[in-house]
Amino acid sequence: MDNRHDNKTISRATDWKFIGTLIAVMAVMVASLLILLNLQRSVSHVEAQLDYRTPTGSVLHDAAATIRRVKSQSVYVPVYSHVYVRDGSPFRLTATLSIRNTDPARPLAVDRVAYYDSAGLLVREYVDAPITVAPHATIEYLIKEQDVSGGSGANFVVDWATENPLARPVIEAVMIGTASNQGISFVCPGVVVSEVMADDAE
Length: 202
Description:
CATH topology of the largest domain: Hypothetical Protein Tm1070, Chain: A
Structural class: alpha+beta
Largest sheet: 7 strands, antiparallel
Strand content: 35-45%
Number of helices: 1
Number of strands: 13
Radius of gyration: 30 Å
Helix content: 10-25%
């Protein structure tokens, strides 16, 4: 009788211990799930902030018309919508044109951003009217991976103007592509092809 009573007591204690352990494990799992969901929301929020957006008023100002154009340049920027690999198979790329005003105090007027294909034919214009890039600001234009209209010999032509003196802007294209376990990335700096200085430029 005593042994049976002791066995029942031990069995009940074991059951309660198991239930307690199970509840603790479930609590840890629920807490972990909540942490993961919160982390996913945070990552999604950050990624949403990093998503490409057409340049907006946050970096552009309506001051382009007020800039005295005493210096202007036309910059040629090589762009590759794809490169060739192995036996000549195309490897498609995403390209980003980056226009950076390096000057800490003066705005930069961008008069034209044009995209040309390998044959030198105009694909599209990106700037309808002169825009201004604020000091130390950057604007970007994206050529998506699936956009093969430019070809392997595509290019941007960027026309910009400024008041002197002004630090030279950085204008370059960044190409990146991934496929399976392969990846490629490289940068093409812009090349000045023409420059005009006003007679009264400093």
